[in-house]
Design goal:
By secondary structure, this protein is α/β, with parallel strands linked by helices. It has eight helices and ten strands. The chain binds adenosine-5'-triphosphate. Residues 13, 15, 20, 22, 40, 42-48 line the site of adenosine-5'-triphosphate.
C-alpha cells in the first residue's frame, strides 16, 4: 500500500484574471517509510501539493489517497490531519512566550495521569534534536532561528505522525544550519519509521532521498538523484 497515492490529479486556480493549471493528469506515490524529495521552480505548486496531501485543498479531478484513505471521503479532516500528519514549515506555530518544553506539552493538563510520561517523552525528543536542559526550558523567543525550527520539529514528533510533510522548513536558515536541521529531522523520522515528503533543493537531502521529483509542466517527474 502506498502512503501517498495521487491518481490523474488536476488542480487549477483562478487568479482573478486567468485560470492557472498547476497539475494535469498527475500521478505521484510514496511508499511506507520512504523519503521523497520534491523540487521545482517558484510557484510551480509545491506547497499546494503538500496541502493537498494534508487534505487542506482538494483536487479538481482525480483521486488523492493518503494512508489508505480517500481524502474526499473524510468528514473530520482537521482531526484526521492532527492524528496522522506532521506538517512542518518555517512559519512558527508555537507560542513564543512559553518554553520549548511547555510548547510540547501544550494541551496536556499537569494533573493528567500521563503528564509525567509525556514530559519524559518531550525531553527525550528534545535531547535527540540537540536541546540541552537549559535550552529546552528557555522561552521560544529567546532562542535562535535554528532552535525555533527544531522546536517545531519536536512538537510534530510528539504526535508520532505516520506521515511528515515538510515545506522548505529551513528556507530562512543559512546553508550549514539548514542542513543540520534537515538532517536531524530525517534521522528522527527514520527512527520513528515515518514516511517523509519534503520540499527542498538541498543537495545533501536529495542524495538521501528514496525518490526525487521535479514539479515541471504540470507533472511530477521522477529524477535521477545524481544532479
Ligand atoms: N488558494 C489559492 N487561490 C488562488 N491561487 C492560488 C491558491 N493557492 C496557490 N495559488 C497559486 O498557485 C500557484 C502555486 O502556488 P504554490 O504556493 O503551491 O507554489 P510553490 O511552488 O510552493 O511556490 P514557492 O516556490 O514560491 O513557494 C501560485 O501562482 C499561487 O499564487
Amino acid at each position: 500500500m502506498y502512503v501517498v497515492d495521487l491518481k490523474n490529479v488536476l488542480k487549477r486556480f483562478h487568479d482573478g484574471t486567468q485560470m492557472k493549471v498547476l497539475y494535469d493528469n498527475m500521478n505521484f506515490h510514496v511508499s511506507e517509510g520512504e523519503l521523497a524529495v520534491i523540487t521545482g521552480r517558484k510557484e510551480s505548486g509545491k506547497s499546494t501539493l503538500l496541502n493537498m496531501i494534508a487534505a487542506m485543498t482538494p483536487p479538481n479531478k482525480g483521486k488523492v489517497n493518503v494512508l489508505g484513505q480517500d481524502l474526499l471521503q473524510i468528514k473530520e479532516r482537521h482531526e484526521w490531519r492532527l492524528k496522522n500528519i506532521g506538517f512542518i514549515t518555517d512559519e512558527g506555530c508555537l507560542i513564543p512566550y512559553l518554553t520549548v518544553k511547555q510548547n510540547l506539552l501544550l494541551g496536556i493538563p499537569t494533573d493528567d495521569r500521563n503528564f509525567m510520561k509525556k514530559e519524559q517523552e518531550a525531553e527525550n525528543i528534545l535531547v535527540e534534536l540537540g536541546f540541552t536542559e537549559e535550552s529546552m526550558n528557555e522561552s521560544l523567543e529567546g532562542l535562535s532561528s535554528k532552535e525555533q525550527i527544531l522546536a517545531t520539529v519536536a512538537r510534530v514528533f510528539m504526535t508520532n505522525p505516520r506521515l511528515i510533510l515538510a515545506d522548505e522548513p529551513t528556507k530562512e536558515l543559512t546553508g550549514k544550519e539548514g542542513k543540520e536541521v534537515l538532517q536531524r529531522l530525517l534521522d528522527f523520522a527514520r527512527k520513528q519509521k515515518s514516511t517523509v515528503v519534503v520540499v527542498s533543493d538541498d543537495e545533501s537531502i536529495i542524495s538521501q532521498a528514496d525518490t526525487y521529483f521535479i514539479l515541471e509542466e504540470c507533472q511530477l517527474l521522477e529524477k535521477n538523484k545524481a544532479i
